[in-house]
Design brief:
With 198 residues, the protein is α/β, with parallel strands linked by helices. 29% of the residues lie in helices and 20% in strands. It has six helices and ten strands. α1 crosses α2. The N and C termini lie far apart (48 Å).
């Protein structure tokens, strides 16, 4: 029995709308945006689904954490709607998705993801992390391009390893990964250009 569900009802216009909102999130780090054009696939949140529908394609490799790899509805729908090859090795991923159920694996994942090279820094991965809240939990201050002065945001209950990684990564720029924190349909982005402090 198929587990294929509806993605965007109007693929062109919905993906354009989501792209504009994702562009806002990336260009104005810490600004919360809502993606409301499609639901989730299995246990994969609606925000992650719409981000992948918008940004991933047959030329990008997607890595999924264990809980998502074991969810047939997630796998079937991503293969059908996105057509991106699913990678078993995070070191080869263009996009990686860490489910809330797998947050304990965050430290190991961060050490595996590609950060690009001096010649091609854009080959660094984009990491989507599902979190339980964008209203409470760990608080950090963001500064850098796209942020007038600074911006204080909540990350939810995320591992200390993630906060440490974000606060220590400045030295590697322009190498690095871009981070998107997703709570249901809402998300905030912390690109590699953003400085993060507790």
């Amino acid at each position: 029995m198929t587990m294929i569900t509806t993605a965007f009802s109007d693929a062109i216009h919905d993906s354009q709308l989501c792209f504009r909102r994702l562009l806002k999130a990336m260009s104005e780090p810490g600004t919360r945006v809502e993606l409301d054009r499609a639901g989730g696939f299995g246990n994969l949140s609606a925000g992650c689904v719409q981000t992948l529908l918008t940004l991933a394609d047959s030329g990008t490799r997607v890595w999924l954490s264990d809980a998502l790899q074991q969810d047939d509805a997630v796998l079937e729908n991503l293969r059908f709607h996105v057509a991106a090859p699913l990678s078993s090795d995070a070191a080869e991923a263009d996009f990686a998705v860490l489910a809330g159920a797998d947050l304990d694996d965050c430290d190991a994942l961060l050490s595996r993801l590609p950060v690009g090279s001096e010649e091609y820094p854009d080959n660094g991965a984009t990491l989507l992390i599902e979190t339980d809240s964008l209203d409470r939990g760990v608080e950090v201050t963001l500064s850098g391009p796209g942020i007038p002065d600074s911006r204080r945001i909540c990350l939810g209950r995320v591992p200390e390893a993630l906060v440490r990684f974000l606060s220590e990564r400045d030295a590697a720029f322009p190498l690095g990964i871009d981070l998107i924190l997703v709570c249901d349909r809402e998300l905030v982005a912390i690109p590699r250009t953003t400085r993060v402090e507790r």
